[in-house]
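Hi F.,

I've been meaning to write this up properly since the lab meeting, where we talked about keeping a consistent format for the predictions we share between groups. The idea is simple: the sequence comes first, exactly as it goes in, then the structure tokens exactly as they come out, then a line or two of notes. No screenshots and no reformatting. I'm using this chain as the first example so we have something concrete to point to.
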Amino acid sequence: MTPTGRQRRETVRMQAAELFEQRIKPSEVARRLRVSVKSAYQWHQLWRDGGVQALASRGPSGSRCRLSSRCLEKLAVYLEEGPAAHGWVEDQVWTASRVATLIGRKFHISYSVSGATRLMHRLGFSPQVPARRVAERDEQAVSTWREATWAEVKGPGRPAGATSASRTKPASPDGRPGDGPGAGAVSPRS
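Output, unedited:
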């Protein structure tokens, strides 16, 4: 199992603490550990004030999830049931907006659309973007238009063999001019 970015950063901070204990200067610690000098000086200050514990990770940053683990389990079940089971019958698509609304209805907690997106990813779901179609759409009329009218409007297009916009002659050693580059390479200068 490979370590996460957070685990690697913590390992580097612990290595820095060991070097500080050996009275190695922050600039040298930065060079050895391949970190910025600014970071090394900040870590040195933290180490001086609080020891190795001050350099230990305090866990993930950012705000805590406002839903309990029990509520997250319920939300996953609701998402598995599908949108129609919760009032969205026009299509079977969970959008982030719908999930934010569902969270508000079921748990009385307000989530932004971006927060609902992150929550969905955390639960193993991805928000979908529904295809917007007019309710009165006539599929037969659309296919007839594509076959008849679009063919007229579109025009003939390029012929199948046309692949380049410029005309070039195929290169061949026999067709090289006598005064071109490399023409006198074989004959010695006099």
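Notes:
The mean pLDDT is 82.
The radius of gyration is 33 Å.

If this format works for you, I'll send the rest the same way.

G.
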